[in-house]
Design brief:
about 230 residues, mainly beta, Immunoglobulin-like, 2 domains, five-stranded mixed beta sheet, five-stranded antiparallel beta sheet, 2 helices, globular, periplasm, Molecular chaperone, Pili_assmbl_chaperone_N, Pili_assmbl_chap_C_dom_sf
């Protein structure tokens, strides 16, 4: 019994020392991406995105690429530079170029832009108590053909809501993706609400008794939040 308590005390001491050491290790903030989404207008030759390194002394390697919405689907984009060294306090511009034929269509296509920041290491950093993490950010890239009808900033107002028992059905009659910032039924958040594809629909399980009020806000092209729209079903 004595041996058991002694081992437990030693283990507790080691755990406390490890936690104290972990708390005292500083972590770097990483790079800053100048947007939460990229809108690629098909009529343009490229889209751009700023990447900043706000650190005072940290250097990062930044790697970027585009994936299809389905990971098995090859994305017709190249990002330049695909890999570069980001110096402290500096800003760089990523240029995204569509490599396929200009799409003539009536709806957007969703891709994903990946930006990975890798802390550069040297012999001095290796000897310091510095926690270094590789951070991968993934943001939406919407490829927007020129022939889509309607104003993208107003597309969220066109959403149509209906109900089937405890299911709230959301239909999007426009050619634009609508990304929810919030969706509320009788003032209660529908936490599962995410994005409704163009000419598509989404369903959410929501307890509903009698006629209910639906209020929603979306995220616009600039990452801002729209005014609230509402209806009843």
């Amino acid at each position: 019994m004595y041996v058991f308590h002694k081992k437990a005390a030693v283990t507790a001491s080691l755990l406390a020392a490890t936690l104290l050491m972990a708390i005292s290790i500083p972590a770097e903030a990483g790079i800053s991406i100048g947007g939460t989404r990229v809108i690629y207008q098909a009529k343009n030759k490229e889209a751009t995105l700023s990447i900043k390194n706000p650190a005072n002394s940290s250097v990062y390697l930044v790697q970027s690429w585009v994936e299809g919405n389905n990971s098995s689907r090859k994305a017709p984009f190249i990002v330049t530079p695909p890999l570069y060294r980001s110096e402290p306090g500096k800003e760089n511009i990523l240029r995204i170029v569509h490599t396929g034929a200009q799409t003539v269509g009536n709806k957007e296509t969703l891709y994903w832009l990946n930006v990975k920041s890798i802390p550069a290491t040297d012999s001095e950093a290796a000897n310091n108590n510095t926690l270094q993490m590789v951070v991968k950010s993934r943001i939406k890239l919407f490829y927007r053909p020129a022939d889509i009808k309607g104003n993208p900033q107003d597309s969220y107002k066109s959403l149509q809501f209906s109900r089937n028992g405890s299911h709230l059905h959301v239909s999007n009659p426009t050619g634009y993706y609508v990304t929810f910032y919030s969706l509320k039924v009788n003032g209660k958040d529908v936490k599962e609400a995410d994005m409704v594809p163009p000419f598509g629909q989404s369903d959410y399980v929501v307890p509903m008794n009698g006629r209910v009020s639906v209020t929603w806000q979306a995220i616009n092209d600039f990452g801002g939040i729209t005014e609230a729209a509402n209806t009843s079903v």
